[in-house]
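Input record (one chain):
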Amino acid sequence: MGSGIQNSCYLIVIMFLLFSHIGVANTEKIGSRFSSLKWRKQQKHCNMFQGSWVWDDSYPLYDSSACPHIRKEFDCIKYGRPDGFYLQFRWQPKDCDLPSFDGEDFLKRLKDKKIMFVGDSLSLNQWQSLVCLLHAANPGSNTSTLTNGSTTTVIFHEYGVSVMLFHSLYLVDIEEAEYMGRVLKLDSLKNGEQWKDIDVLIFNTWLWWYRRGIKQPWDYIQDGNEIVKDMDRMVAFRKGLTTWGNWVDSYIDTETTRVFFQGISPSHYNGSEWNQTGVKNCSMETMPLSGSIYPGGLPVAVNVVKEVLSNISKPVYLLDITTLSQLRKDAHPSSYNAFKGMDCTHWCIAGLPDTWNQLLYASLIA
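The corresponding structure, as predicted from the sequence alone:
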């Protein structure tokens, strides 16, 4: 009889643990669903790109030394950055609270899907941040990295999620022409064949449009049937971006594909823009600007992006990162990279691009 009572007790304990586990799992699902519903309600009345940076002891979102995917251009701690203040700030919108980045939820939502960043080295910056955020949420997960031409892919096999980067400086084409050299074709976009069947696309271009001299990767510009040695670069940018917008309207099924534009990422080489006359780079900057206004104002390219996006008939969501990034004069690698060059254009990882991806996540679950 004693044995029967003991067996019954074991059975009760096992059932309790089983149902407790199920209850916790269900509570987690309900909590995640509730968070999404709460955010959907909040974001209708909130511009999440307007706000300020606040100190948060729980930051950074991951330990950069534990992420195997950071390139030596962006790995500031590894290359000797002595201060850690830049890691401790969280973006706080004026009229709402952003949902925390949930890497596991992100992967579950994108199960068996592909997300692709298309653009220059600032797309690389954001792509590497997202891979690190997802790795931190699943540190023991089975991943593999593949490179094929212009595309690099990190696959999270447990979820079947591919996080991809397609390297493109201008979105539109550069082609070799006989007797002329490299031609930037403002009305040609052939790489789109590799983009159109992706589930989430995040585009970016701007950084290279004003490059000149040996850093300029083309010799002529073609606009329609006219080929010229050069032209107003802002006009060229508008024309190239319009070609991309027309491609979105013609080839993207927004019922199955979400389209984002990364926005204009600022650089910090002119201290007068943040009221520090005479400062020529970001090397001594350790704290963000307070408040929500950047003294130097917005670059003209922001207006061009918004104008072009407004003329696209299909939904394209702007990740309007410019102002919040302008306030982060402290978040660049400066000389803390493998090359020891002064870089006030890109961003440390961990760092600001993690916020860009938090905003992407908030947009995806809205």
